[in-house]
Amino acid sequence: MGIIIHVDIDAFYASVEELDDNKIIGKPVVVGGKSNHGVVTTANYVARKYGIHSAMPMYMAKNLCDHLIIKPMRRDRYLEKSREVFEVLKTYTDKIEKVSIDESYLDVTGLGYDENIVYELQKNIFNKTGLSVSVGLSYNKFLAKLASDWNKPNGIMIIRESDIPEILFPLDIRKVHGIGRKSEEKLRNIGINKVEDLYGLSYEFLANMFKKSGEEIYNRIRGVDNREVTPNTMRKSLGTESTFEATKNRNVLINYLKEFAKEVSEDLIVKEISGYTLTLKMKNEKFKVKTRSKTYDNAIYEEEDILNKSIEIFDEAYEGEKLRLIGITVSNLVDLNIRQLSFFSRRKNEKN
Question: Omega into 165 within 30° of 0, i.e. cis?
Answer without folding.
Answer: yes
